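stage 2 :: seqdesign
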C-alpha cells in the first residue's frame, strides 16, 4: 500500500485521528529513527484524542449550553462574600456521583447562572450526560406541547446524569402544568438518584406561592433538600456594574 491507499483504508475503518496525522508522524519517525512500536503508540494516541474530542463536543451540543464557562473566569473579588468554597466543591462533581442536588439562591446578577453553567460544562468534560434548561421558558413551552412531545421532553429531563434548571420562578407564579412538571422531574430524579442544580432569585420559603400549592412545594423541597448543598448568593449585580461601565464610556 502507498500513502494514499493507507489513508483511504484508515478513513474506511473510521480511524480519522490516525489518518489526519499520518504524514506528520511518518516524517517524525523517520527524522528521529523511532522504533515502530513507539510510532504506532503515538498514532493510536492521536486516534484516542480525536475520538475523545468528538465525544466531548457531542456532549456539549446535547447539553443545551451555549457557553463554555469556567470558575476561573469568575470575578470573585466583586462580591467577596459569595460561597466560593462551596462553588468549587460543586465543581469537583462529587455530588453527581452521589446523586445529590444543589440550590443556588440569591439576588439577580450575582453570578448564580455563571456558577451553574461552569459546573455543567465541567461535567460534560468529565463524561457526564448533562441538560441545561432555562426553567421558566422551557416549562412554558412544555405546557403548549402535544402529549407525545411532553413525554419526550420529560424523558430528556429525567435521564441525564445532571439537570440544571436555571432561573426557576423568574416570572414568579408558574402555570399549574409547569408546577406538576417540576414535581414529576424532582420526584423521578430523586428515585433514580440523579443530580439537579437549581438557580433562583426566590427564597425557598416562598416557593409555595409561586407554585400555587404549599403542599406541592413541601413535597418538592423535601426531595430536593434530602441530599443537597444550599448556596446563598448575596451582593451587587454584575449586570448593573457592566451596564454602568458601558454608560460611562459612551461618548456624549
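stage 2 :: out
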Amino acid at each position: 500500500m502507498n500513502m494514499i491507499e493507507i489513508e483511504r483504508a484508515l478513513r474506511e475503518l473510521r480511524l480519522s485521528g490516525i489518518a489526519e496525522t499520518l504524514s506528520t508522524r511518518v516524517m517524525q519517525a523517520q527524522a528521529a529513527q523511532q522504533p515502530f512500536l513507539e510510532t504506532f503508540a503515538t498514532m493510536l494516541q492521536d486516534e484516542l484524542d480525536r475520538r475523545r474530542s468528538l465525544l466531548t463536543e457531542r456532549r456539549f451540543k446535547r447539553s443545551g449550553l451555549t457557553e463554555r464557562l469556567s470558575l476561573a473566569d469568575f470575578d470573585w473579588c466583586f462580591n467577596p462574600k459569595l460561597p466560593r468554597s462551596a462553588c468549587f466543591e460543586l465543581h469537583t462533581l462529587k455530588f453527581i456521583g452521589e446523586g445529590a442536588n444543589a440550590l443556588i439562591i440569591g439576588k439577580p446578577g450575582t453570578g448564580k447562572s455563571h456558577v451553574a453553567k461552569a459546573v455543567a460544562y465541567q461535567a460534560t468534560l468529565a463524561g457526564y450526560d448533562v441538560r441545561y434548561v432555562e426553567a421558566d421558558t422551557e416549562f412554558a413551552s412544555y405546557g403548549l406541547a402535544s402529549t407525545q412531545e411532553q413525554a419526550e421532553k420529560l424523558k430528556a429531563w429525567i435521564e441525564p446524569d445532571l439537570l440544571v434548571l436555571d432561573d426557576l420562578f423568574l416570572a414568579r407564579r408558574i402555570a399549574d402544568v409547569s408546577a406538576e412538571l417540576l414535581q414529576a422531574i424532582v420526584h423521578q430524579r430523586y428515585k433514580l438518584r440523579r443530580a439537579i442544580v437549581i438557580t433562583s432569585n426566590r427564597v425557598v420559603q416562598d416557593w409555595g406561592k409561586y407554585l400555587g400549592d404549599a403542599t406541592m412545594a413541601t413535597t418538592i423541597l423535601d426531595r430536593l433538600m434530602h441530599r443537597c448543598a444550599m448556596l446563598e448568593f448575596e451582593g451587587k449585580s454584575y449586570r448593573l456594574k457592566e451596564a454602568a461601565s458601558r454608560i460611562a464610556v459612551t461618548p456624549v
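stage 3 :: structure notes
- The mean pLDDT is 88.
- The CA atoms of residues 204 and 221 lie 8 Å apart.
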